[in-house]
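Me: Here is a favour to ask of a fellow structure person. Could you put it straight underneath, so I can go through it closely?

Assistant:
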Amino acid sequence: MSNVGAVVSSIRNIMRQDRGISGDAQRLEQLGWMLFLKIMDDKDQELEAIKDNYVSVIPKKFQWRNWAANKEGITGDELLNFIDSTEAKNKGLFETLRNIISTSNPQRAMIVKEVFEGSNNYMKSGYEMRKVINKLNEIDFTKSDDKHIFGTIYESILQELRDAGNKGEYYTPRAVTQLMTQMTDPQLGDKILDPAAGTGGFLTAAIDHIRGNYVKTVKDETTLQNSITGWELKPVAYVLGLTNLILHEIDIPDYHYIDSLKKEYNSIGKNDRVDVILANPPFGATIADGVETNFPTNYRCKESADLFVILMLQLLKPTGKCAIVLPDGSISGDGVKARIREKLLTDCNLHTIVRLPQTTFFPALVSTNLLFFEKGEPTKEIWYYEHRLPEGQKSYSKTKSIQFSEFKPLIKWWNNRKKSDISWKVNAKDLVNWDLDIKNPNKQEEDYEYSTRELMNMLEDSLSKSNELVKELKKELF
């Protein structure tokens, strides 16, 4: 097995040599559909081996094993034509898979169709593309322990998504998704939804949690297969999330390339509601024109995170549970923000808020909170818990990200709550204007001053990123 980090690094460098790839976003989209196609074929081969009469929905000619697996396979212009051709008598891979139909497995065919409708082939050199393909073939996703190795790929890709992402796109650290899932404790048979699913981190955490604690039989596994749903608007994140679910043994993922905020609010009925929502909705992100008119007049606004709160309250069953990430800007403020919080605290028992350090979602510097609530009864009291940085550590960073082991004190406290220097309780009646931005009353103010060396390093990092952006702009303009 090759070093996965080295493989991903090599692919990055190869793609930079291709004149068709302009910037991280296009490179990640390119890598996304190629990863999907390879992993889909690996899973198809597994299913062919264990299921009688199983036939892949992907035509034989376009199955990865038949055109990409051989390192001496087609390359150059022949490879580009194979991928891009739109000729009626010689349709290429994209033209074929965007129009794929299967009577034997229509759901799986629809997954393939959605992926290729939302993706593009940006590479202009068939020779560079062959190099990328050969690098991907160094990774064998059929091996049972390779999910952990694929996790390494995801960590690399997610870091790049964070660096290349638009405003509002903050990808959730694995430690945070694991904590939120464990504390919510979804059960076997619960309908679980992430309406801002990204690359599927919350959904795969839920799958791992339920499999590890509650799946005992084949029937249990079937129940789990039919319990997981995700919606995602960004094409790169969608493809990666779909691939992630397939690797987590979800045969036909209920995972859709849609804008959740466009879901007709008033049409959400009993059959649409779910038991558990786990999510990190985008905050500060641009919403489509007119989307806010889909919501009741009293709650219309332009802030995506606030609209997601209203949507999730509508999507929860009467006794549903939810854990979400929200910025400080959504738990304070007046006007429509206050009205949304009023509805949250009136319709649900918001029992816990975990306050995170500002650098948790590095490189974004945004103060975030984990909100845990249950629908059905109004909030009477809220427990706050302040998660602090490890002793001696001044911030989270690319090399020092938040670790699940840091949450051991929180997990121990969860079922035996007591006031301390990092935990406190607030009566809902004492809230002013439904403001949830309650500072730790036990914390002494600390004035931290950065050293000259730290300030210089921060300035150097900022200038480096600015130079990279200028280079990308020059490529686009000239």
About this structure: The first strand starts at residue 86 and ends at 87. The chain has a mean pLDDT of 88. DSSP finds 17 helices and eleven strands in the chain.
